[in-house]
Amino acid sequence: MALLAVQLSAFLAVAVLRASAGPVAPPLPVDPNSQGVWGAAVYATVYYNLRSGDKYIYKVTAVLDVQVQIDGGIKYTMDVELGRTRCENGKTPDLESCVLFTAPGEARSLKCHFVVLSDPLLEKRRILDSSCQPVSE
């Protein structure tokens, strides 16, 4: 029942925002472990993997910082740590089943900044910004 109330609130907030121009509230910190944050982080990671050119895919290992703003949808601005997995790019649809590399030379981490706009009404997301840098081991 509580989940339904949250979804209805998000639905109504987005419906109202569609009629307004520009952001209606400043960015706010949000729980990095929330379902919406992880959904946006995984979506951005899949986007990164499709464009990376790396033989192996990366998956989210930590959400380091995240803020949410209502701006034509729910805009997640986040810093995320990604770890390189043993799953080959383009061959594994489920990131969660992929095991991280641990051996020196194979294990790699990235710190990424993603901005994801989520539209709960249409059940769509899109990337507004994406950048990743290697983390020194």
From TrEMBL:
InterPro entries: Cystatin_dom, Cystatin_sf. It holds the Pfam family Cystatin. Residues 18-133 form the Cystatin domain. Residues 1-21 form the signal peptide. Keywords: Disulfide bond, Signal. GO terms for cellular component: cytoplasm; extracellular space; vesicle. The keyword Disulfide bond applies. It comes from the Eukaryota. GO terms for molecular function: cysteine-type endopeptidase inhibitor activity. Belongs to the cystatin family. PANTHER family: CYSTATIN (PTHR46186), CYSTATIN C (AMYLOID ANGIOPATHY AND CEREBRAL HEMORRHAGE)-RELATED (PTHR46186:SF12). This is Cystatin-like. It comes from Lepisosteus oculatus.
